């Protein structure tokens, strides 16, 4: 399956406690039951296989840290349908500036409809430089790993090509949301270089 083509992407506006935010949205279907997908999102042993190792107080109101710079608080947890967390980067991140919400719904064939919305107050120069691909490409890479874990697939994907196509797909979402073509093209190129720098 073409994992990039399996997802629908959109860019919009929303709000977080700190104020107005950009949103990136990914919707797709997983060929797995909703309880299995929920477990993949919340079970630390499985989460580390497709995202990163996680530590902390993994319950409503608890704080978590991923192996890296991401950390946050569990804001809503309604098994097996909805998980919402604050999603902050680095020790100096301002609380209330970034949130991720995942919604699951059972599909008609024992599958799962998956929706991820990441709302963030994005400061200069991040959004003007990279557009929605700044976070979107990272989520595409993570959701590719989630798909592989859920289905047991091990098909190889050339990462540079995947990143290039992901950045282009987020560029299309940016254009659909009213982005200026020249700005979008520059953001797609910058995002591709950031995630997959030229090896030469």
TrEMBL record:
Pfam families: AHSA1
InterPro entries, A to Z: ASHA1/2-like_C, START-like_dom_sf
Protein name (database record): Activator of Hsp90 ATPase homologue 1/2-like C-terminal domain-containing protein
Species of origin: Amycolatopsis suaedae
Lineage top rank: taxon: Bacteria
Family that this chain belongs to: Belongs to the AHA1 family.
N-terminal signal peptide: none
Domain Activator of Hsp90 ATPase homologue 1/2-like C-terminal: 31-147
Alphabetized SUPFAM superfamilies for the sequence: Bet v1-like
Gene3D superfamilies: 3.30.530.20
């Amino acid at each position: 399956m073409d994992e990039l083509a399996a997802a629908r992407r959109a860019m919009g506006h929303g709000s977080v406690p700190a104020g107005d935010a950009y949103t990136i949205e990914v919707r797709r279907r997983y060929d797995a039951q909703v309880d299995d997908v929920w477990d993949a999102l919340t079970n630390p042993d499985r989460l580390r296989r497709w995202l990163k190792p996680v530590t902390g107080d993994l319950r409503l109101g608890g704080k978590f840290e991923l192996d890296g710079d991401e950390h946050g608080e569990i804001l809503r947890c309604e098994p097996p349908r909805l998980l919402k967390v604050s999603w902050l980067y680095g020790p100096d991140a301002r609380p209330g500036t970034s949130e991720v919400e995942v919604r699951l719904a059972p599909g008609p064939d024992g599958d799962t409809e998956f929706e991820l919305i990441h709302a963030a107050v994005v400061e200069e120069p991040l959004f003007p430089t990279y557009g929605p691909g700044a976070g979107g490409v990272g989520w595409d890479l993570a959701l590719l790993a989630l798909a592989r874990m859920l289905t047991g697939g091990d098909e190889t994907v050339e990462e540079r090509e995947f990143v290039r196509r992901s950045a282009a797909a987020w560029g299309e979402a940016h254009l659909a949301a009213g982005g200026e073509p020249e700005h979008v093209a520059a953001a797609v190129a910058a995002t591709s270089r950031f995630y997959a720098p030229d090896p030469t």
